[in-house]
Every structure is written in structure tokens, then in C-alpha cells.
Amino acid sequence: MANIQIVETSLRDGNQCLWGATGIDTAKTLGIAPAMERAGFSAIDFTTSTHMGVAVRFKQEDPWERIRAMAEICQTTPLQFLSTGFRFISWETATPEFMEFAFGVLARNGIRRFALADPMNDATSNVEVARLVKRAGGEQVVGALVYTISPIHDDAHYAEAARIMAASPDIDALYIKDPGGLLTSKRIDTLIPAILAEIGDKPLELHSHCTIGLAETAYCEAAELGVSALQCASGGVSDGTSHPPVMRTVKNLRALGHTVDVDDEAVAEIDAWFTAIAEAEGLPTGSPMPFDAAYFQHNLPGGMVGTMRRHLADQRVPHLEGAVIEELGRIREELGWPIVMTPFAQMLQTQAVMNVTGKERWSVIPDEVIRFAIGKFGRPNAPVDQEVMDKIMANPRTKELEAEKGMAELSDLRKRIGKDLPDEEFLLRATMPAELVDAMQAAGPANRTYVPEAQPVMNLLRDVLSRRDLTELTVEKAGFKLEVESN
């Protein structure tokens, strides 16, 4: 029996899965920070560059302020930043110099743990990025083995990627990242031993989703096979397309004889906090999901399935869902079996809808699919089907995209945006529209206090104050009455 650690994912991935990455702000983060620090988690999955962009765009909050405030409270629990290749906030490919600079600013502001998930599962790229992270001051690096189903993603593929990353002195641990929640107990029985055989004494973690009801049994099986940590969410942002709940996972692991050294009281407080947020804000909550074999055909993360259905409904062709799912499988094979994770999940879905609803397959090809085929995102896992590649190369847009240079050099960006700007502001302005950063700064410091129980009343007051047709307002409860009249 083993001592299993817990990585808490509510603030980043749980929020993204169930609340579209917009359900959490600085006040909701800091309100639960003391309990998250007490809980005894091995790490907190805290943010990505995408979430930092969301903070600016939708919340008018400074993401650097949020990181610093959380790190000030979480002195012993590392905050994790997820990096997906050579990009930061913008989808433009950044230079290694720019990425090292960004990692250094993140580390200086309080990010101690960096998870690296290359969209191509390119282990050598993860090794290169890990070197940049450590050189920039990052304390811990965890390299991802992104799980998917295809003829080329077998045990040997993952064992070789694990061997390459484990050999790097800059990668401290590895984790299996299963964004579609597709790992079965049967698959784990061969996959985990194959990986463990290649990584020596470096720890292996598991990150999966409850999308089709497999993750909890997979977690229990993984613990039996030697995984050292499991990634879980809490309360209202667990289950559904998110991760197994911390409380239920800990209970199951202990029932199997494993040790999980967490503070149960703090864990319960965290669970209640995220449930209270969902109730106060009218946000969806996850629930245990039924098994759905169709996911093995398209591999789409749960949130993407909902997006696909919405797109088909908008085009008034919801009856084509089955055809689109079948087309997704064909496109994946033709494009060399890309892993169905951001940004490739969105590309595959868009191309599938276009192929099914258009007059001819591949008659319309989005820019991002062209960029993928010509190597702008890295080396495809397998060669693109020649007939499809011929159509892509014949597309007039391809030459224009081949000429793209990606993000400018760091020195050029400094000259253009401002040499004297603080590093944190410079990074935002280098990767986001200026008007969004201006609006964030104009909004001032973020609110740091959130009381879930008060939100229904606050929402009612906001609605009332926004109306111009009311002349009288009465607030009444037992022993109290307030009457307000307009002049």
C-alpha cells in the first residue's frame, strides 16, 4: 500500500471544464486560499496563460496580482502553471527567449511548479522547455504524457516519450494527462508499468476526467500500480467533465489501504466553498457521468462535445451529429492522428463540421488546420495523408501562412511596446489587445472579498439599482423593515 498525494485542480482545470474558465476571480480564489494551504496538497493546479488572459478580458483583473496574493498565502503548497508548447496567452508561436522570460516572471511572482504538455506529445520539446523553466528559476517541472487513442499511441510510444523526459535533469516528475477521460482500467494495466519501467525513481502522476465515468476506477487502479499522485477537483467543480472529487477519491484510496495525508477538515471546507460558489452564482455543477462508448470514436473532451452540438444547432443541422463524429475519426487519421486537446480539438471539430455541411470534403480549410499541416505547431505524429496535403498546398492561403514568422523577437517587442514597462505589464501588452489591458488597469485593484451567502442579495440589489422604473423599495424580514423612496 502506498502514500498517495493529491494535486488540487479546482481553480484551474475544474473551473475550465465546468465554468468555461470564467467562474473564478481573485476574490473567489483568495477566499479559499488559507484552507487550500492547510489541506496538505502536493500542489495546486492554479493557472495557465489562457486563464491569465481570461482574467484580463472578462474580469478586468490583473492576473499577476492574483498569483502574488495566492502565493503569499500558500507558502508551502506549490502553485502550478500549465504550459502548452511555445505560446504565452497569444496563439502565436513565441521564441525560446520570450518563453524563458515569461517563465522567469511567473516564477518571480510565485509560480513554483510548471506542468509541460506539448500538444504533439513531443518529448524532446518538453525537455527543451523544461530547460528554459529551470534556467528561469522554476522549482519543479512535471512533463506530460498526453493520452489519446490511435494506432500510433501505444505503450511503446508513451514508454519512449517517458524515457526521453525522465533522462532530463530538468524534469522532476511525469504525469499521464488524459483530457478525454478515456483511460480504462484494462489500458492502465499495461500503460503504467511500461512508463514506470522507463523513469526510474521519478514520480508518476495521473490526471483524468470523469467525462464517461471511467476516471475514479482508473485512479484506484493507478494507485495500486505505483502512481504517486492523483489530480482531483472539489465540490461544485468536480465530476461531470471535470476530475474525480477530492473527498470521494481520498475515501476510496483509504478504503483500499492507501495513506492519503490531507487535512480532512480543510478538504471539506474547500469542497463546500466551490459548491457554495456554484449555488450563489447559478453556475453548473458536475455529477457522476454514465459510460458513453461514442467517446472512443471521436476522443473529444466533454466541453467540446457541447460546443459541437451548439454549432450544429446554430446551423439548424443537429441531425448531422453522428456524421460529424464519424468525420472526426476520418480527419484525425488523415492529419496523422493529432491528439484531441487544445488547440487541435477545436481544429478537428471545425474541419469536421465544414466537411459534413459543405459541398465537398476539404473544400474549405481553416487557417489553423493549414498551420498544423505545414508544421507551425510542431512535428505531426505521422505524415499527413498525401491527397489531403495536396489540397492544402494548393490552397492560396497556404503560401501566406508559410511566410508567417510567429511572434516578434523579445528585443523588438520591447522597443515597440515600451522599454520601461514593468515586466508583468509588458507580457500582457505583448500578447493581448491594448484596450483590454487599459480597461484592466482602469478598473483598479481586484476585489479580495467574496461571501457566497451574500451574493443572492447583492445580485438583487444590482438588478434593482439598474432599473429606472422603480420609485419605492421595501426590504423586510423578521424584526427589520427598510423603506426607500426616490425624490
Key descriptive features of the protein:
487 residues, alpha/beta, TIM Barrel, Cyclin A, domain 1, 2 domains, 8-stranded parallel barrel, two-stranded antiparallel ribbon, 10 strands, 51% helix, globular
Give the strand content. 5-15%
Quick one: CATH superfamily of the largest domain?
Answer: Aldolase class I
Average predicted confidence as pLDDT: 93
Instruction: Describe the strand arrangement of the main beta sheet, using strand numbers.
Output: 1-2-3-4-5-6-7-8
How many DSSP E strands?
Answer: 10
Helical stretch tally: 22
Largest sheet: 8 strands, parallel, barrel
Low-confidence regions: none
CATH-defined architecture of the largest domain? Alpha-Beta Barrel
Structural class: alpha/beta
Shape: globular
Would you tell me which CATH topology of the largest domain applies? TIM Barrel
Radius of gyration: 24 Å
Q: Helical percent range?
A: 40-55%
CATH top level label of the largest domain: Alpha Beta
Tally of structural domains: 2
* End-to-end CA span: 73 Å
Question: Can you describe this structure?
Answer:
- The protein is α/β, with parallel strands linked by helices and 487 residues long.
- It has helices at residues 10-19, 26-38, 49-59, 63-73, 96-109, 123-136, 155-166, 185-199, 215-225, 246-255, 264-281, 295-298, 302-314, 321-334, 344-357, 367-373, 386-394, 396-402, 410-417, 423-431, 434-443, 455-466; strands at 5-8, 43-48, 79-83, 113-116, 140-146, 173-178, 204-208, 229-232, 472-477, 480-485.
- Helix 6 (123-136) runs parallel beside helix 7 (155-166), helix 7 (155-166) packs parallel to helix 8 (185-199) and helix 14 (321-334) crosses helix 15 (344-357).
